[in-house]
């Protein structure tokens, strides 16, 4: 039964309670009760105070009214975990708690017989007791990405953003890029709504995607795009994370937490349509395997046949994610997770600046302009993975977490795109007509495979009045990539009046090939120390990595073979203090280490990229857990940076140093029971502090806007004739940015508006329970804007208005 249905039940329960109560100290072993919570409970009868405690703590509290009859309480204000709060509330009474799962029962300590209470009070609150499970609403309280442990966000001295499943559903966020639209510190849709890839940067630096804490494979063009429908939550850790994850970007990492099997039988089916044309069917079912008590299953899938706003470019996808869990006891869980995804689309459109960013005598190029050949262009990707998660708690209190995954991304990308400027038949340096453009034909055959594993053990103990949560682990990553590029000149195209079919449908000759293998292994140690209301976070890691690279070029003919080995130490130190009023100032310092897969234009492997960051800020979690605010200030320095990685087809190069400084503010709040707020402000000053070309030092880093802002509000009508209806709207602002490191190409700022309307049919009666219809519109005004232009002379339109209508049934 879902929590929503539980809340709908009468708060009366008739039953028998065993009087063998668990001591208060044992309560702290439960994950929910370890979390520090901000309480604000007014004085009153003990029954009323316990009622407020159950709701604010997010637990199920069971007791007889006879137990508290005639007792008063002075209430409770401040930051406590459940153990501490119960000690305060029950001090001076003979009442003790007994815990079982997420339920706490209250009884008298001296009773030896079984007592029957009639009636019995049951108090329930919203439960968010796992960093790896669903979030009730938009506001997550816990995360495992920042520490590899089930930690409270208000106690983590580093900035972490969590996008919940509820937020993805309500705002119709369908891709990893879209999921970050209302998140601070990130740039996600740099090339508009690219149906192929996610172009995500954090604090000015490109980052990679992780799944359940392990890196997804990624090659030159064999980039993954994980299906967001199979995700329970998406989490952004901002700043260096190498101390826990090994080789990773200094800017941070983007981690997806998979949907996992549940003991509760539940499911949903969703049908979508919209403009541009689309039909999408998705479904998700989970529960106990019939006839068993220890086996659970989950099956999540999606099928889409869709167009995009660009002529001849599809956005088709088939996705299946099965999972299976075995829980022989409350101490052990073994889960098998698999996924298989197939995509069918075409290349991103490369348009000349004249007609997009700059004026053209022929007018603007339409956003629907297709520059390739409909019968030749193709983008096909297959993604697959299989792995498992093992969790076991030993008798001595040690906890084992072990996971492993084998995954692969295979891409065939072929197409024709504008290149080498407008046609100049007489070679006088002036285009003939500014409408006919030269083109090239290309074919990328790319494959990336990865074997990843992570094993750690954890224990909590007390030394000299301080609680230590120690994590000791080892992880391993092996990644192989193969890439072949076929490339040639082909016939020009009139971009204002295209005539297709004039190109011979033959693949171009091989231009270059590359094979690379990365092996990385690391040992890490972390200690989360709690002394009263102060948290110290100390982490250290030792990495060893090897990159073997073999490359060949046909024109000009060349070949190279190189092996690069690196040993690095990464570390992090953090300090945070939780005040009674909910504020938590923090300070942290962290380093990063990132071997670079890929070669420069001479076929040489890159040196590792190093980073270091100082971050300080303050977090706020309201006593009722209805507001979570993070304000952070950071300075991040990254050396040996690989540039131009965000520009498709451009050669990469390694420059000296980039310094990124900024301020980020992120607010998630439940302003009223039926009014939600999400807001983000970002200021990022990312500049080239050292470069092989001294003339660009001090310039802004390409593709990084200085200013971004967003706000989202949604409201559900209640107790009126409009009960069941909901409305929402958001505004997203992206400031101007440069498209090249010389800062000659400036892309203007833009502001977009999103809209939501929905109706929950359950308000019409139980027969309609679980049905909902909704409409989401992004870029409501159909604003025409330039998403990005690069130093290769290509520009990319931002996405126009997209309308999606859906009907859902959940049970």
TrEMBL record:
Residue intervals of the Secretin/TonB short N-terminal domain: 59-109
Subcellular location, record wording: Cell outer membrane
SUPFAM superfamilies for the chain: Porins
Membrane topology designation: Multi-pass membrane protein
Highest rank taxon of the organism: Bacteria
Assigned keywords, A-Z: Cell outer membrane, Ion transport, Iron, Iron transport, Membrane, Receptor, Signal, TonB box, Transmembrane, Transmembrane beta strand, Transport
Pfam families xrefs: Plug, STN, TonB_dep_Rec_b-barrel
Stretch forming the signal peptide: 1-21
UniProt similarity note: Belongs to the TonB-dependent receptor family.
Name the UniProt record assigns to this protein: TonB-dependent siderophore receptor
Origin species: Litoribrevibacter euphylliae
